[in-house]
Sequence to fold (254 residues):
Amino acid sequence: MRFDILTLFPQFFETPLSSAIFQRARDKGLASFNTYNIRDYTHDKHNVVDDYPFGGGAGMLLKPEPIFEAIEDVLKDRHLCEEPVPVILTTPQGRPFSQPLAYQLAEHKRLVILCGHYEGVDDRVREHIVTHEISIGDYVLSGGELAALVIADAVTRLLPGVLGSDESAAGDSHSEGLLEYPQFTRPAEFRGWAVPEILLSGNHAKITAWRREQSLLKTAERRPDLLSKASLTAKERKTLAARLEEPEHNYPDE
Fold:
């Protein structure tokens, strides 16, 4: 997969994109990461990329001209791609980023990510060249660079062959609409706290069932909103309801 990231601060990406999952994907030839400075597409001596909003108001907006030129230049070879290339704008007004969305994006061969900044971008950018608007949470960042890294990281790790095992991504929190089950490693006992015996039993069927139950319980306790979207059997819903009525699973409202 090819990632093209348009930003006012390309230096922001130098260390992250040469580290961890990104470097692993690059070393395996599974992904490439390119950054472009939007200022390089201005035509005045001061490389101005922003201006005051029409109608007044606080802050500055990114101008449409350099953004359109930058994206059009980056996509000038798009005819070589068999499918449309998603152009993503990182913005607090966008669709909430999620694991299902990460899977959808991972199906493409190429992504363009435009990092918003200041008070945002001229709306003609959103209307005429952006295909996806994505928010990574209900808060405001100084710029979209961190959001771009979050999206790139979540998508990169889903590419076949990037992780040591394809099962690693499949078992992550949110992959099936639920939070991940508790996990343990050696030693089997630490400061008097023992690993659940079932995980030491070697009975993989029982371990799988235990993990599923724990995943359901953790989701119900911490993110009950996810259960309405999760695929649960009637038996699981009944079991979950019964377990949550037990005293040890009754938590006071925070």
